[in-house]
Every structure is written in C-alpha cells, then in structure tokens.
Amino acid sequence: KTSYDPVKDFELVTNVASNVFAMAVGSGTPATTLGEFVESAKAKPGSISYASAGNGSVSHLSMAMFLARAKLDMVHVTYKGGAPALADVMAGHVPVYFANLPEVLPQISGGKIRVLAVSSQKRVAQLPNVPTVAESGWPDFQTQTWNGLAAPAKTPKAVVDRIAGEMAAVARDPEFLKRMDTLGVQVICNTPGEFAKQLKDDIGLWGQAIKVSGAKLE
Q1: pLDDT above 70 coverage of the chain, percent
Q2: Tens of pLDDT along 168-210?
Q3: Residue 134 carries which DSSP code?
Q4: Do 134 and 38 meet the contact criterion of CB atoms below 8 Å apart?
Q5: Is 86 within 8 Å of 100 (Cβ atoms)?
Q6: Contacts of 25 (CB under 8 A, 6+ apart)
Q7: DSSP-based three-state secondary structure for 212
Q8: Which CATH number fits domain 21-118: 3.40.190.10, 3.50.50.60, 3.40.718.10, 3.60.15.10?
C-alpha cells in the first residue's frame, strides 16, 4: 500500500502521451484477423494459451478484459517481463501476446509476428493498416497506459494551467512529435480537466480488469 493517495494528493496537469497495446501473434499462427483468431479459440475452449509479462501486468489485465468481452476461455502463461513473452510468441511456443506497441514494432518488419489489432480508440500512425479491437467487432474495448504530469495537491490553478499550456505548445513541435513517433507512443497533452476525467475513467476500467483477471498481490 502506498503512503499517499494517488488521486487526492496531486493536481493533474496533463497526460503527455499514451502507450498502446498490440494483439501480436507469431508468424505460424494461421489467423490474419482478430475475428479469425477468436473463432479458432472458441473452437478449442481451454486449450489455447496466451502470454503475459507477468501476473497483474497490463498485458495480463488487457487480455483478461478482452477474453471476458469475447467470451473466450484461454490458458494464461506468465513470464518475467515482456521480452521473454514476445520471444516465445515469435518462436511459436505461445500463440498470442497483448504486447506494448514499442515492443513489437521492430519485429513486424522482419515478419516474425503479426499484429491483429491495437487497443487504442483510434488506429495508430505507426500501423495505419491495423484495425483497433473496437473496429474488429468489440466496440466497448479499449486499454492504454499513459505518461502524465502532476503537481502536488493545492498547487495554484494558474501554475497548473501554465504548465499544461507549455506542454501543449511542445506537443505541436514537429521534432517532439517525430521523436515520440519513433518510440511508438501517442502524444496527447490534454487539459487538466480532460486528464482528471480520464483518470477517473481509468480507475474504473482497471478496477474492473483486476476483478475479471483474478490477479492478486504476491
């Protein structure tokens, strides 16, 4: 348990960028769309596995949420981090992994994996031909992590707004956008109010994901 309240002890400034997740399968997996993969998994309930970066990781929670929405029964295989999980997917030992987008981008061009869908609300610039999970038939699905700025609680509103405004200006800089694109993240730089609403929504989303996944502290 943390010694602080992550909501009450901070003034939210801006969500700088979001991190999208990609439903990645090995090149040996026959499915070329998310719909095809779901149909193959439904045909063999409880016999197809999926990888995650660890129990309670975002890859685990995202996949657990998707399984619940798609009404799938799959076997969870945990790894100590994303690198070994992705390696086993590429080797064909595990068919699918809901990976952090930057993890998979270098492997796509080499043909070692395919991305069936991304977890964001909109398609990502790095993979414009890859649909979102929502487009693929599950319109209520979306998971992302983010990197934001926050100030101590009771920081004057004028200060918070000034920092948010400066970050919004940075977000219009072509060099900054180019650098973020190479990292595989999506620039947001929203307002303090928008960030606060997003945090509230995310608390509900991830709370639900934890319940669905059955993940517990170890």
Answers
A1: 99
A2: 999 999 999 999 988 889 999 999 999 999 999 999 999 999 9
A3: T
A4: no
A5: no
A6: 31, 37, 89, 95, 96, 113, 114, 116
A7: helix
A8: 3.40.190.10
Dihedral angle sign, alpha carbons of residues 54, 42, 25, 210? negative
Place of tokens 């719909």: 35
Structure token digits, residue 73: 């029964």
Does pTM surpass 0.85?
A: yes
pLDDT one-digit tens code per residue, 79-106: 999 999 999 999 999 999 999 999 999 9
Spatial distance between the Cα atoms of 162 and 174, rounded to a whole number of angstroms? 21
CA distance 147 to 4: 19
| Residue-wise pLDDT tens digits, 138-177 | 998 999 999 999 999 999 999 999 999 999 999 999 999 9
Please count the other Cβ atoms lying within 10 Å of the Cβ belonging to residue 134: 17
